Amino acid sequence: MLDLQAVSKHFGGVRAVDGVDLTVARGQILGLIGPNGSGKSTIVNLICGLFPLTSGRIVYNGADIADLPPHARVTMGIARTFQNIRLFGQLTVWQNLWVAQNSSEQRKQNFLKRWLGGSRSAREEIDRTLEFFDLAHKRDELAGNLAFGEQRRLEFARALSAKPALLLLDEPAAGMNAEEIDQLDGRIRRMRQDGITVLLIEHHVELVMSVADRIAVLNFGQKIAEGTPAAVQANPVVREAYLGTAAAA
Amino acid sequence: MDDYLIGVLSNIGVISFIALSAYLLLLTGEISFGQQAFFAIGAYAAGIATALWGWPLALALVWGAAIGGAAAVLVGIPTLRLHGLYFAIATLAFAEMVRILFELFRYQITIDGELVGPDGADGFRNIRYIFDNNIDAFQFLLLIYALLAVVLLGFVLLERSRLGVIFRMIGEDETLAGLQGVSIAHHKVLAAGISGALAGIGGGLYAHLTTYVEPRIFDVMLGVHSLAYGLIGGLGTALGPLLGVLIDIGVLESIRALSGYRMIIFGGLVALLLIVRPRGLLDENVVHKIGRFWRRISPWARRPGLNTGNRNNLTGGRP
Q1: Cβ distance A43 to A20 under 8 Å?
Q2: Residue-range definition of the domain harbouring residue B49
Q3: What is the distance between the alpha carbons of residues B271 and B277, in angstroms, rounded to a whole number?
Q4: What is the pLDDT of residue B178?
Q5: Which residues of chain B neighbour A165 with C-beta distances below 8 Å?
Q6: Would you say residue B162 has pLDDT above 70?
Q7: DSSP letters along A59-80, please?
Q8: Cα–Cα distance between B105 and B238 in angstroms, integer?
Q9: B313 min Cα distance to partner chain A (Å)
Q10: Dihedral, CA atoms, A26, A31, A37, A39, nearest 10 degrees?
Q11: C-alpha A188: how far from chain center
Q12: Which domains, and CATH codes, for chain A?
């Protein structure tokens, strides 16, 4: 579904991402891990179009999308969440989800209804999403007034509102307690059941090992390993990247 | 109603258009120091249409709005790629350019043995439509406020529509708005066009209210004031900039005891509010609270929460 071919991003002399090949198969959850500064977030930013590539290709459903602006990629079904929560704090919870309904399918709704309050099915979709994320009682609250955990759920909900085919989750468990991580685990599994492909960037190793089908490991902008969770966990190169060499330790 | 009061209220009404024009751009996060240019363009265009071409007033106002909007779109396409300070400077430069062009602009024809039309820095006299058609000051006041009511109704609809929410999204976080599938460039140019048209209508009304315009009126202070109205009154609702106009023109300029201190009080007010209430008196939080209170006491308001009561049936239980 998504194919990164020899993708590089250099900021001046810094090679944030350096010749990475990465394939996300349809319906799969691919975990992307690596130490801080290894280029994980940069890859997400490249896929959703926040930075231009230095070199390489990003192929999505057979088409090279590397030159498309971010909003065009969203319409094609690529949505994301942020490592640091980014919401429209001055808009209500409901409005945050409403304006996110921008998939090409959703754009085909009756024009007037879409622009003046949303069609019935669109409104029901928002209500269902709010239920799913346990936010229904907050629907008319300003997003900026929500508690931290609620904001995280809202960000997740907003990403789903665009009916993505591919969801990029950038450290969704950051700052969550054990119970919330448990719920997150369930929601990610549930999304796979619904046919959404997920690229999961996460520091919380337990979560990644638990939900990911495959895991890729980055270090200094390069991919150093890829495989099933068990294989990656056993890989000595990965251990070295995280823990240092035996000599250094 | 006495003439003085009619004059003050007319002024408030006309200036409200340019305040709303600056407000709309503020919603999308852009600070324009150049809305006076579109106000000027609307004033000259509408004035020329009635005084020189003999058009009816309604058509002239639409014409002024159209020219103002078109000019704003043309300026917006290159400048809206700039952000913040750079956009502010670009709009300021454009507005000064327009003002100086009007100082050079001569277009006069002889009507009834009299030379009529813009005469460069000497201005554009005798925009006599409301005298020639026996419209008295009170009737013109009603016209101004009828148009203002239509514009406000438009804003109420806008705030409830997807477009209004998108404008606010872009104002709050442009990058994030793009990641919701919204084309930033299209929406910004659209906002610029609407705001140019609003300023254009205001300019057309102004020209016919005062019967005389000159380039000097449309200097940068007019732009700064129109910007300040939204920042004082609040960015949470279109009534915010109107409140700003009311405070400035209705209180500071029109009450004789205060008028000498107008700039001191007004400037101080801007500085103070930017510190304690950066998004104005009627900011989003206040408007939201009023809205919630209204929904609680009003029997007509739509009740929130269509689906409370059967929460778990919708998803078949949470995962």
Answers
A1: yes
A2: 3-219
A3: 10
A4: 93
A5: none
A6: yes
A7: EETTEE-TTS-HHHHHHTTEEE
A8: 35
A9: 10
A10: -20
A11: 11
A12: 1-77+165-190+197-249 (3.40.50.300), 88-163 (no CATH)
pLDDT value at residue B177: 94
B276 located within any domain: no
Residue from the list B162, B306, B319 with its beta carbon closest to the beta carbon of A186: B319
What is the helix, strand, coil percentage profile of chain A, to 5? 40, 25, 35
- B250 inside domain: no
Give whole-number Cα distances, B233 to A89, B225, B238, B294, in Å: 20, 12, 9, 20
Shortest CA gap B237–chain A (Å) = 12
- A64-74 pLDDT, tens digit per residue, is 999 999 999 99
Per residue in A100-145, pLDDT (tens digit) is 998 777 788 788 888 887 888 889 999 999 999 999 999 999 999 9
CB B181 within 8 A of CB A78: no
Q: Enter the ipTM.
A: 0.89
Average confidence (pLDDT) per 10 residues, chain A, 249 residues: 94 92 94 91 94 94 93 93 92 93 80 82 91 92 93 93 93 89 92 93 89 94 92 88 61
Task: Return the pLDDT at B276.
Answer: 93
Domains identified in chain B, total number = 1
Contact at 8 Å (CB) between B38 and B200?
Answer: yes
Give, for B22, the enclosing helix (H) or strand (E).
helix B3-27
Mutation choice for A interface testing from B27, B168, B179, B313 by most A CBs within 10 A: B179
Q: Considering only CB atoms, which chain A residues are within 8 Å of B165?
A: 91, 95, 98-99
Residue B134 at interface with chain A, using a CB cutoff of 8 Å: no
Distances from the Cα of B32 to the Cα of B83, B90, B279, angstroms: 11, 9, 16
Structure tokens at A180: 């919330």
Residue B35 domain flag: yes
**CA angle in degrees (0–180, nearest 5) for A105-A110-A114:** 80
Among A74, A115, A132, whose Cβ lies nearest the Cβ of B179? Answer: A74
Predicted local confidence at residue A195, as pLDDT: 92
Pairwise CB contact (< 8 Å): A98 & B305: no
Q: Could you tell me if B20 and B85 are in contact, meaning their C-beta atoms sit under 8 angstroms apart? A: no
